[in-house]
Specification:
The complex is a heterodimer of chains A (112) and B (114). Chain A is mostly beta strands and 112 residues long. Chain A contains no helices and 10 strands. In chain A, strands 1-3-8-7-6 form a 5-stranded antiparallel β-sheet, with no helix packed on it. In chain A, strands 2-10-9-4-5 form a 5-stranded mixed β-sheet, with no helix packed on it. Chain B is built from no helices and 11 strands. In chain B, strands 2, 4, 5, 6, 9, 10 and 11 form a 7-stranded mixed β-sheet that branches. Chain B has a 4-stranded antiparallel β-sheet with strand order 1-3-8-7, with no helix packed on it. The termini of chain B are far apart. Classes of the chains: A mainly beta (112), B mainly beta (114). The A-B interface holds A 33, 37, 40-45, 48, 88, 92-105 and B 2, 4, 31, 33, 35, 42-45, 48, 55-56, 58, 90, 92, 94, 96-108.
Chain lengths: 112, 114
């Protein structure tokens, strides 16, 4: 089982601040996915990073995959209350099954 | 709206009881997944069905069972309920079992065992 560690576990910031959350493992992944789960909803896929060193941007969100493909980070610029939620990472599942093994997640609260 | 429908949204029951959670996948999706989310365990994979057949199993207790029907909807049955079974239960669906990049989650069923 590939164990994913996400940090920090909780983060509470003011609107407009920048933040970075991390997803680390001792295992190498072929690709990694980031999800956001808003209160009262299920997780929604934000991005899949595939190549070591890859950087992907989604508006104010910047995702980076480590060179060794063991870790990833999510940086949010000028956070807004709408960014509040649980951020989860998971290795992209093997081809024969779609099951996702999630990290514990980072709970982000952005206060207005 | 993900297109995955779960009912009921909330369920309150007592220890020792049995409940059934229902899931309708997105139109065209053949694969259904069940997940359990609790504060201490996080979001954990329980079981996956593809076109009516069990495809993968995770940390699912023997007191829990699931099935996928010919119309592709799925049910998760939880029996002999314990306080620790209180959690959010999510259903998710995808077109095929390996389509991990396109898994869509429902809004969940909040189960409270009193």
């Amino acid at each position: 089982t590939q164990l994913l560690e996400q940090s920090p576990q909780f983060l509470s910031i003011q609107e407009g601040e920048n933040l970075t959350v991390y997803c680390n493992s001792s295992s190498v992944f072929s690709s990694l996915q980031w999800y956001r789960q808003e209160p009262g909803e299920g997780p929604v896929l934000l991005v899949t990073v595939v190549t070591g060193g890859e950087v992907k941007k989604l508006k104010r969100l910047t995702f980076q995959f480590g060179d060794a493909r063991k870790d990833s980070s999510l940086h949010i610029t000028a956070a807004q209350p709408g960014d509040t939620g649980l951020y989860l990472c998971a290795p992209e599942p093997p081809e024969h099954t779609g099951k996702l093994i999630f990290g514990q997640g980072t709970t982000l609260q952005v206060k207005p | 709206d993900s297109g995955v429908t779960q009912t009921p949204k909330h369920l309150i029951t007592a220890t020792g009881q049995r409940v059934t959670l229902r899931c309708s996948p997105r139109s065209g999706d053949l694969s259904v997944y069940w997940y359990q989310q609790s504060l201490d365990q996080g979001l954990q994979f329980l079981i996956q069905y593809y076109n009516g057949e069990e495809r993968a199993k995770g940390n699912i207790l023997e007191r829990f069972s699931a099935q996928q029907f010919p119309d592709l909807h799925s049910e998760l049955n939880l029996s002999s309920l314990e306080l620790g079974d209180s959690a959010l239960y999510f259903c998710a669906s995808s077109v095929d079992p390996g389509d991990g990049g396109r898994v869509f989650f429902g809004s969940g069923t909040q189960l409270s065992v009193l």
